[in-house]
Structure formats: structure tokens, C-alpha cells
């Protein structure tokens, strides 16, 4: 099942961001390789992304998102997607 | 899988509401009996409801919602739900 | 009487969260066991939940919510619910 | 139990308002006399009011509000009230 | 003259709240006793209240509100009220 | 007492605006001459104005505003003003 | 270049929707086949979609969107996308 | 003096748009030729534009904007601009 | 030329406000005496004001506002004003 | 290709702003000289600007914006622009 996710990152200045960002990147690569994180785009001009996730259940999506290293510093909004009638 | 749905109904004055509302009620009862529509509450003071749906996929949820008789006159917002760690 | 409650948790980084979260969980379990907290769902991707409370009065609901260990770090919105005419 | 209610009235130009408004006024007087509608204030400059209702249950409040003659033309928002610790 | 006031309190964690809250309570009691603060309700689930003030002028209302001990930590919104035509 | 008022006019295309606008203008001039309507500015690019009213009571302000010919087609927001401590 | 587009469709009740919707579907299929409209998902519960477009210039994207049969009845929001540093 | 203007056009379906749009275009060209309307860009995907106007006074800007043929069908927002300290 | 300005002041608790506020007051008096700052009202219940400025150019207004001692702690919104057709 | 960008700067009080602001200015001048940053205006009364960028791709725009010295302290919103049909 597909989910549209917007993530906005707000890292406070006093946080040691580098290691977190590196872990986040590693995890994102893992999830892309394992197929859950199917699309990942940077929103131009913002520390934010639009992503599409393909996961079997809501619970798995929440586990994935809430275990992301940057999760404590992110505002996340999830929208469930369905098949569009005009989709070829 | 569980989904939280808010439905706000806006029926234009010139629509013949009675038959639509009756069909909507019949359909809602059907869906409650078949188990998809697990919770249905009226928001006090508003022609709106909070509902919980239990469906296997996003597509099924969309089919259910978009086929509701009042769908053309509703503003609908869907939020996917996961199991809460404190849930007994 | 039923109330729909949304709770968004915002824990500042410098707060010692673990004990607070543990107390919150214990209290939530208590309230579910005693029947006031009837439904508790995690909003996918967010440190937030939708809940339903069944309490006899507004005052009791406020006492329950405002005494939750995480209350000082939560944004809470309460919506009173009524019986829906299509509810079976 | 006390509830704070905001009502914004939007009467389309082609509606025959006079009889509706008269019925609304009569009903409001009835509810004030029977004690449910305890406070009713006009918001300066707006076709809107702030009201306080004293009713035993959510369902009764919804029945009262949704049966008001102007209900189809109103945007209503209900906020449950509790006793304030500084209230004398 | 009557004014509807909403007060949302946001006390930063590092503020010594107890004395402030006690002073606020004492002041609220004073103003209720002297008749300016005529109604005071807790908004269920929130560190916020709806109040009604009866004061002769805008200036007096501002002096009262801006001298409240918690004023620096409050978001306040004031709405002037008029007599409602259906008020008995 | 002074009040800041924003008025946004939304005249539906099928309304015969000219006579209404003329009556509104006449009334506005009356109120300026009698001193209640002390300031009246056009918001650049919008069919809207910022105004300042000087009236003894909230009720009088509401009577003035709600009796304006364009009132049924206006969104009005009123903010009570007090004397600023830096005002010379 | 990639663009994220949200389209919300609001078809007035008195519009003959069927032919429009059919033309829209045909056009959407064309654009998917020609590669500009790369992704098209239905937002669950809403007459809305999230789409991704791959077009060489802003102008081409606007021409495509503004020439869609349903364009007069759509609210469209376009967000330019860039390559995400964690994209594999 | 420079002003940033956003114009969103909402033409009701039953308005005979063609002549209005043609007049609007003619007027826009006139104002660009006479130098007041210095920049005019289409917002991708929307019947809206961002524009920059160079006019000596607020009044002249309002006269220009409010006399545009499409003005009754536009939502306009004006932001005054100043010279940026980093502007070369 | 006239501009409507709203200023909301947010002074962090750890700022030494007194000297800033005193400088702000002195500057405000200066600008009122020199005629740029023509109107200054306190918004009841809020650390905010509505003001009217009369300045020849946008640049001068920005220089005035951005050089106010409290500017770093203020949220400022400027609306250009034009002469209202009903203004006497 | 043209993009409309709004940048709102929020510099925390404890940040050493001067060097950052100087670097930002130098970079802005560079980008204006190299032609990407074609327009840059100060929004009157706000630490914010409206800008127009002319860049070949979304990615280049994001690289430019996200590498600005003040980027970590800015809220940025990008809107893609197309040629307006009335543009001369």
C-alpha cells in the first residue's frame, strides 16, 4: 500500500547534526534498497522532502517513520494513497 | 487496518436531501454490519462526524468513502492509525 | 458521555523524557482499565494520538487530561461527541 | 454541564429570512426560560454570537443546536467547559 | 460593557510557576469580587480559559489584562460583546 | 472609546450594487460628520477598508455596523483599542 | 525536471461532469504515455490527487496543467522538486 | 515606488469571460507600455500572477488595480517593497 | 502616503527589556512629533499595536520600522492605504 | 527558468549575526552578478525578501538557496513562474 509523506526537518542550532544526518542517510538508503521507501524528492528551497512509501500496514509505516534518526526533529504528515482511475 | 475519518457535510439548499440522507443512512448501517465502519460519532453542533474504519487496504477505504451517497457534498479527511504503545 | 481528544506531544530535547513517558503509559493503562479511556490510537508518523474518553462530566475529563504526566508538553484538543443517527 | 458555543450565521440572499429569524428568536427565548441557554451575547460587528449552554449531556446539546431553525445556515463550534480553579 | 476574552497560558519549563500562578489566582479572585471578571471557565483539556469581563472602557480592560501576573506568558484575544436581540 | 474595524465587501454579481453603494456612502458620510466614524482608509487593491470608530459603547458600535447598507455583504472584524503608553 | 502537483477537483452540481471527466481521463492517459505525467495517485477519501510531472520547463508544465479539461474546476498547487542527497 | 502584487482570478462559470479577459489583456499591455506594470509572471498551475508595479503613490496603485476589468473576480494582495541592502 | 502597520512584540524572558522599551518609547515620541507616526493605538489585551504612518516612500517606512529598538523582537505587517471614496 | 522565492529570516538572539549577514550579502551580490538572482526586494517592515531567480533547473535553484549562509535561519518558499499571456 502506498503512502505520501511530507517530512520537514527542524534541527535546533545546538544539536550535533552531522552524525544524525549521516545515520538518517544510511537508513534512507537501506529502506530504499529494501523497497519500502520507493520515492524521495527534495522540496526546492526547504529542508523538507516528499516521499512515497510502499508498506503492507499502517503500523509498519509508523515503525519506519518513528525510528528514523531525525524523527525527533521532524514534522511528518502522512496521506494514504489509492489507485487513481486514470492511472495507466 | 484502522483509519480515522472526519466527514463534514455541506448540502446546498436546493438539493433534495431526504432521499440522499436516507440512502447514506442505509449504506452506513450496511458498512457497520459488515464491519468496515467500526465507529461513528456525531460532532456536537456540527453536520459532521468522526468515524473509524477497519479495512484491509487504502483502495478499499477510498472505494467505500467515494461511493457514499453524500460523498459529493462532503469534505473528507483521512488519517491512518497505528497501534499505540500504551494501548491495552 | 463521549469525547474525542487529539493529543500532540512536543518534548523539548533537554527534558528527561523516559520517566515521564513511563508514567504516562502507566496512567494510560490505568484509565483504560477503569474504562474512562476507551480508545487510543497512534497517528501514523506523528508523536500524537486520537483518543475517545467516556466520562460523566466535563470536569472529570479535564481533571484526567490535565493530570497526565505529559500534559505540560502536550497540545490537546477536545471535541464533544453525540450519538450519530446512523449508528447501529 | 457547561458548553461554550460560537454560532456564525450565513443566510444566502435568496432565503426568506424573516420567518426563520422569528422562529429562531422564539426558540432562543424558550431555551433561555427553560435554563439550557444560560448566556447569549452578540459579537460586535458580526452576525454571530457567543453562548453558554447548561445541559446534562452532549446528546442533548446536539439535539438543541441541530434543531435550531437557523441551524442549516450556521457554522457552529462547541467547546466543553470545566470549573476554573480560580472561580469564586 | 461586556468583553469576551480567551487566554492561553504557555509557561516555559524553566519559569518558577508556583508563585506566579498563586498571584494570578489571588488577582482573579479580587477581580471577580470587584465585579469586573464576571465569568471564568476552564477550556477542557487546555491550559486556557474563556472569560467575560464587565468594564466601563477599553482602557480599563487593557489595564486589568496586561497587569495580570501571567500576562507575559499568555496569548490573549479580546472580542467586544453587544446585547443580543434574542436575549431575555 | 476607540475600535479598529476591518470591513471586506463581497457583493455577489447578481446584486444591484449601485443603490446599495450609494446608500453606504451617504451613511458613511453621516457617521463621519456626527463623529463616530473617525478614520476610513481604503486597503490598496482590495474592496476593503480599515476604519476607526469612536463610540461610547459596544452596543452602539454594533448598531452602527449592522445597520450599514452593505452589512449583509460584508465580513467585519472589530478590535477594541486602548491608549498606547507611547502615544503623545 | 520534476514537479509535485496537488489537484483538488470541485465540480459544481449543475455542471455536466461526465464528458469533462472522460476527456480528463483521456488526456491524463496521453500525458502518462508521453512521459510528462510520471506518477498519479488518488488521495484516499478526497476528489484530489498527488501527481509528479517530468517536464523540461515551467512553461510546459503550466501549458499542460492549464489545458486539462477539469482545470477550471481545480485548485492546483505546484512544488518544484530537486534530487534528494539520500536518493539511491 | 515598487509594490509586489498577487492576483488570483476566480471567474464564476456563468460569466461571459472572453470579452473581460480580452479587455484585461489590453489594459495590462497598456500599463506595461506606460511603465507602471513592470513585471508580470504566471504562477505555474494557477489562474494567478505575481506582478511588480512601479507607481508614485498608493492611491495610483489602487486606482490601477481596482479599474482592471477582472478586478471584481480577483483576490488581490499588495505588499510594499523597499530597496534591499544587498541589491546591486 | 499612509500605511497601516500592525506590530506584535515578543520579548524573550531572558532579554533586558526595560532599556529597550524606554528607547522604543523615546523613538515613538520622536516619530510622532516629526509627523511620520500619525496614529498609535494599543490592541486591548495584547502586547501589540495598530499604527498609521505617513511617509513619502516605502523605503523611508522600512528604514523607520527596521530601526525601531524593538524591531528584532517584533512581528510587523504593513498594509498600504489609499483614499477611501466615502472619506469626507 | 524563473522562480519566485520568499525568504523570511529568523536569527536567534544568541547567534553572531554580523559575519553571517556579511557573507550572505557577498553571496547575493555574486549571484546577481552571475545572473541567477535577477530581482531582490525588501518586504517593507519585515526581515524578509521577495526574489526572482533565473536558473536552468530545479536542482541548481536548490543548491543556490540551500548554500546561502543564512539558509539555516530562513523559511523559504519557492513558486515556479511561467510566461504570462499578457506579458509584452
Automatic annotation (TrEMBL), chains A, B, C, D, E, F, G, H, I, J:
The gene is catC. Residues 1-86 form the Muconolactone isomerase domain. The keyword RNA-binding does not apply. This is Muconolactone Delta-isomerase. Pfam families: MIase (PF02426). It catalyses: (S)-muconolactone = (4,5-dihydro-5-oxofuran-2-yl)-acetate. The lineage of its organism: Bacteria, Bacillati, Actinomycetota, Actinomycetes, Propionibacteriales. Pathway: Aromatic compound metabolism; beta-ketoadipate pathway; 5-oxo-4,5-dihydro-2-furylacetate from catechol: step 3/3. InterPro entries: Dimeric_a/b-barrel, MLI_dom, Muconolactone_d_Isoase. Its EC number is 5.3.3.4. One of its GO terms (biological process) is beta-ketoadipate pathway. Keywords: Aromatic hydrocarbons catabolism, Isomerase. It comes from Kribbella jiaozuonensis. It is an enzyme of class 5 (isomerase). Homodecamer. Belongs to the muconolactone Delta-isomerase family. One of its GO terms (molecular function) is muconolactone delta-isomerase activity. Gene3D superfamilies: Dimeric alpha+beta barrel (3.30.70.1060).
